[in-house]
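Per-residue structure
===
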Amino acid sequence: MLDRLLAPTLRRLAASFPIAVVTGPRQSGKTTLVRALFHDKPYVSLEDPAERAFALEDPRGFLARFADGAVFDEAQRWPDLFSYLQGLVDTRRASGQFILTGSQQFGLLAGITQSLAGRAGMTRLLPLALAEIPGVHDGSLALDAALLMGGYPALHTQPIAPGDWFASYVATYVERDVRQVINVQDLTTFQRFLRLCAGRTGQLLNLKALAGEAGIAHGTARAWLSVLEASDLVFLLPPYHRNFGKRLVKTPKLYFVDVGLAAWLLGIRTPEVLVTHPLRGALFETLIVGEFLKARYNAGLPADLYFWRDNNGLEADLLFESDGRVQTVEIKSGLTVTSDYIRAGQKSARFAGEEALLPWLVYGGDEYYERSGVRVIGWRELARRFGGKQSA
């Protein structure tokens, strides 16, 4: 099992709440993590037809087996579970009684909000961060290979080709989950919509144009995108909410949570194709923005990540607040830091004036230094920083 950075946060929440909940996309490692951390608790998968039938037919008898708590995997498959757990945890009044996992946030979060508010500590496990992939630290995994493989654990623990795994993943999980939530009558159209979304990773979301190109209604595109968000396959990066003068852009940017899935959907199968692909820069930006998102979730924090673009030509690929000030991040996929990169890094922080911290430039090389008022951070060094293994 690979070490997961979420583990300390999950332990902390289990020690503080009667119920700890882990959400995230399918195959991100939720089951492996909770079974390892809570190996002393009975494990029940609610995707097992027999277990689910028992729970539906005799819920009290089903739960009577777990006087000391349990791990319930894919808890959204039994929506009534949350109401029954409310009574149990209120009676027992002990922390860490039940551990729930779920891959679809629609049913899971609705049940927790209605029945378990104040009783459940929420976490989210996304695919592997770079800091969790051994080949990143020892240098055996090249950047283009990292972009093609992404972070799903199976691709780093099993001898399987990324193309084979992603094809099965989309057919087995993505399309099935979508059909469980909404009625997709034409699967070919949904597949086209998914690939069109991949082609827009790192770009401003234009839902009208996306719907038009996919040949679907605007409302349908919005519904399908909501399902992809709820399944943690894509996320929307909002523009910064502070008013540093007039803001031009008010729409979010679309990103895939896993860069390998985005690359596969774009038809990129080899490093040789990727190195000259026009979307390589967008895929690298997807990887790096995803690293910041995973770092926040692994620490048990809300995303609170933004971007900036105004009508004065000032732009920051990514920004977040730190101690009341603004940290901007410029992202460049090149292996060499050029003067243009440094100028872009300097420019990214100008809109915030005195509130701006030293801007960061994350790039596709390996070095770490400060140059002309910009902190230059190679992608491997970023992984070390998020994994608590910074270079001296």
About this structure: The two ends are 29 Å apart (CA to CA). Residues 130-386 form one domain. Residues 162-181 form the longest helix (20 residues). DSSP finds 18 helices and 14 strands in the chain.
